[in-house]
Structures are given as structure tokens and as C-alpha cells.
Amino acid sequence: MDMDRNTIIGLILIGLVIAFTYSDFYKKMVYDGQVPPPESVKEQTQSATPTASDTTKPEGIDRGEKANVIEEEISPAVAAEKRMTQTLIEDFQLTPNPVEEKQIEIETPLYTAVLSNRGPSVVSWSLKHYLGPDSLPHQMVAGKWGNLSLALPIQEDTLKLAEFTFEVIEGAERIVLSEQNPTETVRLRLDFGQGRVVEQAFSFYYDQYSLDMDVRIKGFEEIVDGFSYGVLWAGSLRPSEANLNEDMNYTKAYALTANDIEEFDVGSKPFAIGGADDWIIRWGAIRTKYFTSAIIPKSQNGNGIRFIGRRIPLGQEQFLKEYSLELRMPYLRKETQDQFTVYIGPLQYSIIKQYNVQLERMMNFGWKIIRPISKLVLWSLTTLYKVIPNYGLVIIIFSILVKLVLFPLTKKSYQSMKEMQKLQPEMQRLREKYKDDPQKLNQEVMKLYREYGVNPLGGCLPMLLQMPLLYALFIVFRSTIELRGAAFFGWIRDLSAPDTVFTLPFSIPLYGNGVNILPIVMGLTMFYQQKMTIQDPKQKAMVYIMPIFFTLIFNQFPSGLTLYYTLFNVLSLIQQKYIPDDPGKPGEPAKKKKKTKRPRNRYEMLRQMRRQ
């Protein structure tokens, strides 16, 4: 197999894999929606949906349209929830103390948060070092209802404490944490009378995106129906990217059971529920493309989890996915105390790996065989960044290093290509001579390969060995948060987004509507590479087809990924032009070495040495 054909096959395979992951068929296949639940279940869960005022307006979305859609759906559910809570209070003679609603602000070098004593609930969590689509610090919390509130099962209903206001028994109204004041705790208490008390304590740290939560439930033995209580995250997460659909493709809910990672995606369904009541749960989480909120039990594992997902169409082929989860914790009808760690921050491998609970398993590093390579690529990039604090320059250095690592393979491929080119006249002569006898043609071709010492797979195997690395590079450059918002120079202000210089008023299939510079440069380098490689007149069309195809599909890819492939093509052109040729001349058969017999004794060995 000659090298020009190998190059074409390799590039087509990469392109098809990349294009397939962006296709509608792939999205429908992986977004395996579930059957919507009955209306009664839907009414009980819709109250977890954020109101219009709680949602950041992504670019290109009409906020008024979204507000109308959500407000019409949520109002009856909220009213029904309040009526149910009032009924439970009356039926079980619960007498919560009337407490004024307060909000406690927490400021650290990493984030600014607001904790409400109603619920209690985390109503705001704004990351200082990450900007949202509005160029302001990214606000992670979408809905203010029931984030870290508890739910107690009572007969056939559920008493959701998000409807109640807790008394603040410890903690100032404003907490500022720093290296001098590294941690503070807020304690809240809800007293229903008759010894029925619920307490929650939240400990915040100046250098962590996580908080610790302690829960104490006392005196509910007679009215709690069941052997578990729930810890809620009902407010979903806000989208963080200007390209909303790209962000939503990654937005899902997860749980780590005893050994397996469970993924829940609402898919194309308007509403779906998932999870199970008999799983061992080590943590539950909701993620977007770059951020996550995870609840991690510390004192004991959970005994079940429930996911709720909604897909809200926004017009203009855009949609919003919202998730809530309820982590079920064992409740043995006596005083219960549990501890949790709650992580609300960036989905950054080096950070979440430190929690030692396998949070990183919700990150996509590719297939099992690809994951070690993807992690090695990510480690290499972050390590280089410590020395060179510009990810654009890091990508340039990294592409050179990768080219050096792959040099033996690519050298073998190019040399095999040149060897095959030497045989083209002989191959053409054999095709004409045996055009009516395919079997004889194959025999003569293999004889020709043996005579000239050419391996027809010499160019194919090195290309196949490079495929796992190329795919790992594609995954890492496309999804790593380290490149998010990282500028290179000039018009390249975000290596995680296309380097768009202006936008067309219409969209082109595969290409989109953004005009980007790097994909065009990459297409030109590929054109020259194909022109140098392809010598067969029958394959001349590929000189133009492949560069155009890759320019189209790379136009919507992150500029960091396109920058890498452009540099890789340039280095390949240099290597291909200056690669040393084989010493053999065209048409010269390989010299056969004379075989020497192995000496049977010392006398014969001396005779052979004398002859040499």
C-alpha cells in the first residue's frame, strides 16, 4: 500500500470520527431520553426549575421568551408545593418558629457566595476567575430554590424543608475569608416543636471551591415514613458558554455508585427522571461543559439517588437543559448526623482529583484505551504552562515535542512512500502486462516487493499507531478548561473557541457562519502537503477535496485545536521535504546478503575469520 493512499485513509478516518461526533445522529444516539413521568410526579418536581430572573441570558437568546415559558409552567407547581407543605404542618401538628429570612454573604479569593436561611439554600455562587457569556464573573447557580436543602419522607408525601426559614445561631451576615481568616462556619436550626429539630452547619474555606456541610435530624422517628432522607440540589447550573448548544451537549447529571459511574441525560425528551433507590452512592453531581456541582457524603455512603431533567426549547434551534438531584441518605428512625463535602467550581482535573473520590470520572477522556494518553497530554500542557505562561506558546512547543516523539514513525512512513514511488513504473508495467489475470498480477507484485525489499505496510502501520494520540489530542483540546479564556495574541483571544474575525449573515453547512483565520491556514498547509504526497494522477482530486473538507469541519472547532494541527502540518511539510532518501537508486533491487553457516567448532570459526 503506497503512502499517499495511507495518508488519505488516515485523514479520512480522523475527519469522519470528528464529523460523526458533531452529527445529529450521534447526538440523538448519546442523548438517550427517557419516558416522561406521570403528571403527578411532574408537578412535584417542577418547583425545582429556576425562575426567569434567576437565569443568565446566553448570547443570542431572547430572555423574554424564556421567562414566559418558565413562568407559565412553574407557578402552578410552586403553589401546589406550598399547599402540600401547609397540609403536612397541620396534619402532624408541626409548629416551626417564625424567623425572618436572611442572606449571608461569603467572599473568598476564589468566589463570592450567598447562603439563604430559607431552606437553607445556596442562592448564589459567583466564580471570580472565570467569566460568563456576559463577561462578568460566572454565576453557577441557576435557581435559588432548594440547593442543599433536605427532604423528609412523610407517609405518601415529602416534607421539603426548602419551604421553611431556619434560625441563624452562628455566623455573621457577611464573611470575608483570607489567609489570615481561613475558615468560618454558619449554623442554622429549624425547631418544629415537640423535640423535632433539624440543624445544618456550613463551613467555608478561603482556598477551596468546596464547603463542608453537617446535618443533624432529631425527633422525627414517629412521622418519617421510610429509611432515608434526601439532600437536594434543585437549582441546576447556569450555562457558561456563548455557544449554548455546545455547552448543553456536555450538560448532564452523574452519580458514582459502588464501582461504576452512572450518567443521566434528558436527551431530546422534554422531561425525564432517573436514578434508583437501592444504589450505593459515593457522590452525585451536575455538570456543564466546564463546571460542576457535586454532593459527596463523608460519614456514610448514600443509599439511592434521583435525577430530574428538563429540556427547554428556546427557539433558533437552541435549547436549555436543567437538572436537579436528590441524594438519598440512610435514616434509621433516630437522631441522625451526617457530614458532606459540596464542591461547586471548575471541572479542572488537577483540582477535583485532590478530593480522592473519583470526581474526575465525570470528565470525558475518551475510550478506555485513549484515557491514559489524554491524561498524559493534559499533564504535558499544564506542566509546560508553569514554565511558559501562555497557552498559545505552550501549544507551539507541545506540537514540536509531539513531532519529535513521532519522528521515527513518520520517517518510516515517508521513506516507505518514497520506496513505493520508485516502484511505480514497474507496477504500471505489471498492471498492463497482467491486466486480464488478477491472480498472476498479485503474485508478480508480491515478488516485486520481495525483490526490492519493500514492505507494502511500512507506511500504513505508522499512521495507525499515531491515531490514538491524534484522537486524544482532539478530546483534550476540545474540552479542557485550562484553555477556556486563554488568549494567544491578536485576534486569538480564547483558545477554547473559534478565532472568529467576523460573522456571516447566513450559515453554511458544516462551516457555520463564523469566518476564522486558522482553519484557512490549516487548509492551505494540508493542500501543499497533499500536493507533495500524491503522485498518482488518478488521485489528484484528493489534493483539493481533503483540504476543503477539513477546513469546513475545523471552522467550528476551538482555535487551540486548529492551531496545533496547523503547526503539525507545517512541521510535517518540513520533515517530508528534507527527509533523507534511501541510498538505493530507482529501479535497483535490494542487495541480498550472503548467508554464512554457523561454525560447528573452533577450527571452522578460525577458517571463516581468515577468509573475511
Distance between the termini: 39 Å
Largest sheet composition:
9 strands, antiparallel
Q: Can you count the beta strands?
A: 22
Structural class: alpha+beta
Give the SSE map.
Elements: H1 3-21, H2 24-30, H3 39-45, H4 63-91, E1 103-107, E2 111-116, E3 121-131, E4 137-139, E5 147-154, E6 157-160, E7 167-170, E8 174-176, E9 183-191, E10 197-205, E11 210-218, E12 228-233, H5 244-250, E13 252-256, E14 261-264, E15 271-276, E16 283-287, E17 291-297, E18 304-315, E19 318-330, E20 336-346, H6 349-352, H7 371-387, H8 391-405, H9 407-422, H10 424-433, H11 438-452, H12 460-479, E21 500-508, E22 512-516, H13 517-533, H14 542-554, H15 559-578, H16 602-611
Parallel strand pairs: 1-8
Antiparallel strand pairs: 1-2, 2-3, 3-4, 5-6, 5-12, 7-9, 9-10, 10-11, 11-20, 12-19, 13-14, 13-16, 15-18, 16-17, 17-20, 18-19, 21-22
Helix pairs in contact: 1-12, 1-14, 7-8, 7-12, 8-15, 9-12, 10-11, 13-14, 13-15
